[in-house]
Design a protein that fits this description.
The structure is a single chain. By secondary structure, the chain is α+β, with helices and mostly antiparallel strands. It has two domains: 110 residues; 27 residues, no CATH class. Helix content is 28%, strand content 15%. It has five helices and six strands, in the order βββααααβαββ. α1 packs across α2. The protein is elongated.
């Protein structure tokens, strides 16, 4: 098994972590150090055993193939790998794998945190200019001179009145 990181995503380092944005699904994934190392090294040429060696070199801790498999499973769940992930040989549970690896390696447990990123239209402010205030949008945030007023002013229900 030689995993390959998915193409078409945008990956940016943030310290030891990596934030991966998928423009097709508007999902962002924050990969901790372990997941980031495996994701970056998943080039389609490096085996799981090779990834374990690389992970051990980069972290200074003894990394086992079980840790790499657990990481690959998390990346696959987030749809960050090309193709499907075959079942791992004699797959222990994540808890069993971490127990087998030892408490010292538990700090290397892979974390892939995912969230939906709003589109520009969804992220647009819902604050309007005072002249757009009507009885239909009573209570909506508004401004008279600057959008900075939006946090403190609202349409009153009188046409054009924002207080």
């Amino acid at each position: 098994m030689k995993p390959l990181a998915r193409s078409g995503v945008i990956a940016r380092p943030v310290g030891d972590e990596v934030v991966v944005y998928d423009p097709a699904t508007h999902m962002a994934h924050c990969l901790n150090r372990t997941a980031a190392l495996v994701f970056r090294a998943a080039d389609g040429r490096t085996s799981v055993a090779g990834l374990a060696v690389l992970l051990a070199e980069k972290t200074g801790a003894e990394a086992h193939q079980d840790l790499v498999w657990a990481t690959l499973e998390r990346l696959a769940e987030a749809n960050l790998l090309e193709g499907s992930l075959p079942p791992r040989p004699a797959a222990p549970s994540r808890r069993q794998a971490l127990r087998r690896l030892g408490i010292g390696v538990a700090a290397l447990a892979p974390v892939v945190a995912s969230l939906v990123v709003p589109t520009p239209a969804e992220a647009a402010p819902t604050c309007i200019q005072a002249m757009a205030c009507t009885t239909m949008n009573t209570g909506q945030n508004c401004y008279v001179l600057s959008p900075l007023e939006c946090a403190t002013k609202a349409c009153t229900g009188v046409a054009g009145e924002c207080l």
